[in-house]
Amino acid sequence: MLSNIVLQWLRKLGLRDVIDRLRMSWQKLTLAKQNRAFRSEYPDVNLPKDDIMYETFNLNYRKYFEGGRKTAKEILSHFQKASKKDYPDSILDWGCGPGRVIRHMPELLPSATKVVGSDFNGETIEWCQRQIPNIEFVQNALMPPIQLKNESIEWVYCISVFTHLSRDAHHAWIQEIYRILQRGGYFLMTTQGDAFINKLTASEVKMYSDDQIVIRDGVEEGRRTFSAFHPPAYIKALTRDFKVQKHIPGTGSKNQPQQDIWVLSKGG
User: What domains can you pick out in the chain, each with its CATH number?
Assistant: First the structure.
């Protein structure tokens, strides 16, 4: 709990991002040997700059690439079980970052499937457009709309995106995803649920226990240090226009909690 309070004070003093950059430098140093080994094993794999990778993930190159492929397979498995379909006609990675997951989709899906990635970070989207083939990348703003037609995407997923958005953005983007999702389509998202309670301060735990979203702002919205925590009841209310097909509560240790997985559908 002490560390949580310290982090809150750092945020109030405007030092949270400074500490986070120091953490990035430390990761770069401690992972240097492992990352050199990865580059030797995968010399043809294009990787984003370290600061871009760290902003959305961490600096472990192997976990970015091999872990991204594993996550892509898991996402498709969740969709396939819920929809009883092998593949969609279209799939969107909303908040794709530097392509950790979506870069593997073309090899896992038929060539006829339209694969789209979007993000609000212009530098990230520009890198994806240059380096990752067979995917359409579009840039969106921090708030909707996204430049996609009504009911144009069959499967939509976002990994740890709502975890970095404000209350207003939560409501705006849920409506926007509903707009672009096909009738009978599916939406998968991850949130910071009960497994993250140990990371909250006493006052935050009270808010969370009252089924209120907990927002840690004081930094630029959308950044990794802007954080939101989601009681399951809040998510159910937020997504009331969808049908909850599956909710998998996060597990893991106190220091490495896993996010909740939600699989939702839009009525046909």
Answer: 68-265 (3.40.50.150)
